[in-house]
Amino acid sequence: MARFADHQGGSRRKAVRPALKDMAKLDETYPFKPLNIAILTVSDTRNVASDTSGDVLAGMIADAGHGLAERAIVNDDLIVIRTKVESWIASPGVDVVITTGGTGFTARDVTPEAIKPLLEKEMEGFAVIFHMISFEQVATSTIQSRACGGVAKGTYVFCLPGSPGACKDAWNGILKWQLDSRHRPCNLIEIMPRLQMPTPAQKSD
């Protein structure tokens, strides 16, 4: 049985249900605020030439009007993954980190284990909605993914499966809208200034 992370969808894939698209509303009276998004591909086998999921994410990020802060490929190594993401979280030039790969159940799939200890708050709703969308594409195979998301030091972090199809589902169904400052009734951008607790010096000011 093919791993979910490698599932390309084939003829079984279909468009995200129209009702989901209809629910996404942009208020053009609000300004669009571009973000700096970093992409990390987690794989023991992919390289720059074969990183199709990273290419898909980079293309969708650019099409949405955001900037690519940085892009990297690392092996399925817990410490290496955590170190790279931690450096991006600490960087003022990175607003969002998206990882792709390593969210399955094999011994080498350790992305959630690497990332979750860095999160101050986990975004349970992201995983719930991702599985709802994914179920329509790959049916019960969606249980083979441990996609997750959260907040770390004012930076949003999302861990996606390694297939291009899963990356498209997550972006087109969730992230494209929640990372758009014009989305209503609310979006993740408008609360970014309040993600971090103020320092004692800031409180005194």
What would the keywords be for this entry?
205 residues; alpha/beta; Molybdenum Cofactor Biosythetic Enzyme, Chain A; six-stranded mixed sheet; two-stranded antiparallel sheet; 7 helices; 18% strand; globular; disordered N terminus
Describe the structure.
This protein has 205 residues and is of the alpha/beta class. The chain has a single domain (33-192), classed as 3-Layer(aba) Sandwich (Molybdenum Cofactor Biosythetic Enzyme, Chain A). It is built from seven helices and eight strands; from the N terminus they run H-E-E-H-E-H-E-H-E-H-E-E-H-E-H. The protein has helices at 18-23, 52-63, 78-90, 111-115, 124-138, 164-178, 200-204, and strands spanning 25-26, 36-42, 67-74, 96-100, 121-122, 148-152, 155-160, 183-184. The protein has a six-stranded mixed sheet with strand order 3-2-4-7-6-5, with helices on both faces. A hairpin with a 2-residue loop joins strand 6 (148-152) and strand 7.
Order of helices and strands: HEEHEHEHEHEEHEH
CATH class: Alpha Beta
The strand order across the widest sheet is: 3-2-4-7-6-5
Portion of residues within helices? 25-40%
Q: Could you list the spans in which at least 5 consecutive residues all have pLDDT below 50?
A: 1-13
SS-derived structural category: alpha/beta
Question: Count the helices. How many?
Answer: 7
Beta strand %:
15-25%
Mean pLDDT: 89
Estimated radius of gyration: 17 Å
According to CATH, the homologous superfamily is: MoaB/Mog-like domain
State the separation between the terminal residues, measured CA to CA.
59 Å
